[in-house]
């Protein structure tokens, strides 16, 4: 067995120190530690996630720094690859407990020169030639990017009252709309009526005001005749030099989903039309760079020819010559050419869209064409200016739709439907009648057959949310086709600046639990190949199994059905995964070490989904998430383990995304949820009434979820940072004083003091406790706070989970029982080995990883190609793969390589 010293293990942590750090404003009872400061690099080379983009629309990103190395008020500058200075806006988004900078955020202006890479310097930078300015008054907020002038309303329905460019108004009165329907007709006849509600603004907040980036948050709901529903939070992002507004739209579903339904949800904006009908243009994007290019009044294909120059100009979107210069057989008959004022592109599934047009309301639609997947971008305007508009993840989040109406009038409208009215009402009803499961014993029996934890009244979507990204471009004229295609690509994948894996790892970010991809030995290469295989499989399954749709996109399935050659989409708790056993973390750690763009985008979609759809943001269960099931909200287990901030942290710090910041801040007071709902209500053997001074809280999935929220609020210095710090440190200290620490299983928690009560020396260990982010939270906390008793308690749990029964009994008084998920827990063993410098534990970790449960050398590590009639669609199947095992294998492989690579057999 090789000799593995403590120094070797620490070096394996991506050169990041694992010694404790000094707490910020720590209580006197917690001793401070003195550690050497790891120097921060003077420069960091940054890259584009997907390579240099065709269009710069600005970008925001985060960069981590080692503890104690960079002052909180440190200046920054940015340079292009050729050394030319580039303006940058910088601000802190995370602090180490000693007050030094942990994460900085930076914004690149939209008019900055495009470079293959940039260099971030820790020195003062230059001021750009253009900047974004914000002016506020009682009725409006006005933002000027130097290219466009945007007036926002503080009340009423119009979020954006006008967008002007060069003195010309390009857009006016952007408002939100929803169609509400009070029934779903299940027979052939359709009698249900719809009513339209529009946005009503209640609050406007300027969150950032330049010089490179301005952010305005708008809150309100949809209203009509006294009825209000669907609260919204919309953020508008404007960059210096930008010709566009980025809109991040979030709505909260404040309905039980049984008696009223969304029949349409969209954003509508007016577009002034000033040009002659033959100088007005419509553009709609299709597959890839495909683009429908038409004029409102077309002069091509006519019986009489106006002239090749005239036809070419219209196709190009250019102003046509004076009609007096055309062939007069056309000019004198222009009034007989139809003007096509209305267009619709409808994407009702991930596999097909259709385009129709008509002359005006009351007249028949004419089919234009169809295709598979539209990129979701449109344009309406003319040679004197127009509006480009698009929705990200358009076909992935079907049913979506783009409408243009009235392009033949003096005011067209463009509507992006996030839920298409052509699709019928959004059906949020629960999917079965309960099947007689009226009591806890009956529900537990149901759990034993379908794995669904059913309880009447719990399968409600009330309080879930969905976020969608939109872009609106104020264009001075109808752009060439290549320019419009580039804008469409920008909507599909907004350019993202990123820091490289080597810097992310060296900073000690996220507990130092990852290291850059390394294939330097055959053993390492084998593990890396298998990690790639698993990600590629899920990426391909998403495509082949069509894991798309408004509520579904971003999630994956839980377990396959090997007999039907499908995933168990209709079998209780085996269907949608809802973050079970942390696939979110597997994906993000896979990105952190690889820098792969496809992994980033996959993880980004999952973060958007699981943080919004699988978590309640309103109502009695606000702050809790829903366990895996046929519908994302169906299961009655509402728990911290799904809503935990640990699944959102990585995306937030990499992008400084404000919406995800909201999601984490929402959870700071989620200890209150234990007063509203007892997670163990169905299996308790003794009477239990929640007491705010003696709440029964598990030390695994429950506490780790609370701790992740407190940690994030504390290091962000959020509005409740003081409370978060108090409760975080109090729970750590009182867990540490329990005779069996984390092995105790649960404790009685006081909501006011944040402390756990004294506990007896008992043993209660679950295979799930550490598998929902606790490993990652504890690694970060031990790297932040010098609390030896807490570290000792966590290292005991890490050492003993996979230990022998004799070893468990010797320390804790009894053994832990029959446990599973040993491969996933091998990373706990590796962590203890790294902290203690224990070569025996390191070797044991790899034995647990390769030769216990989970995926092993005996696993097939390949797919089988299946075609009809055995399957509905051609698929590449790996029936031996399930998401629980995949997430734990991925995390164990990544963390073991970072913590104990030198012990890899």
From TrEMBL:
Any Pfam family hit: PcRGLX_1st
Every PcRGLX/YetA-like N-terminal RIFT barrel domain range: 43-121
Domain PcRGLX/YetA-like central beta-sandwich: 132-488
InterPro entries recorded: PcRGLX/YetA-like, PcRGLX/YetA_2nd, PcRGLX/YetA_3rd, PcRGLX_1st, TAT_signal
Residue ranges constituting the PcRGLX/YetA-like C-terminal alpha/alpha toroid domain according to the UniProt record: 494-904
Protein's name according to its UniProt entry: Tat (Twin-arginine translocation) pathway signal sequence
Protein species of origin: Actinoplanes campanulatus
